[in-house]
Design brief:
Distance between the termini: 35 Å
Strand order of the largest sheet: 1-5-4-3-2
CATH architecture: 2-Layer Sandwich
Number of helices: 4
Length: about 110
């Protein structure tokens, strides 16, 4: 079984998801449900760390990132030395390339 390390950015992403649904959309129950489903899906990586697809399979850049779809959100992580490093949890329609790699990688595509 792998261990799971959640980055401060991923923690902030999940807090922002919860706050947006709860405060902006006015639905506390939905916010709690969405976070529950995201964390439940992420926890599966402890037993199956290669469950998510390689990010390199959908972009033309070699990277150690993998991704796991969690409903309308996508978890981006790396698996190294029996540790899953959760780096970001982003809404599926966001420009993940720019967020993960900045402008310079986006220009290479």
């Amino acid at each position: 079984m792998a261990s799971l390390k959640i980055s401060p950015k991923a923690q902030k992403d999940m807090l922002e998801i919860k706050e947006y649904i709860s405060e902006e959309l006015g639905n506390q129950k939905a916010a709690t449900d969405v976070l529950f489903e995201i964390t439940k899906r992420i926890r599966t990586l402890i037993e199956f760390p290669l469950l998510g697809a390689s990010l390199s399979s959908i972009i033309d850049i070699e990277t150690g990132y993998r991704f796991l779809v969690c409903g309308q959100y996508t978890a981006f992580y790396r698996y190294e030395n029996d540790i899953v490093y959760l780096d970001r949890v982003l809404y599926g329609r966001r420009e993940f390339m720019k967020i993960l790699f900045g402008d310079e990688k986006e220009e290479e595509i």
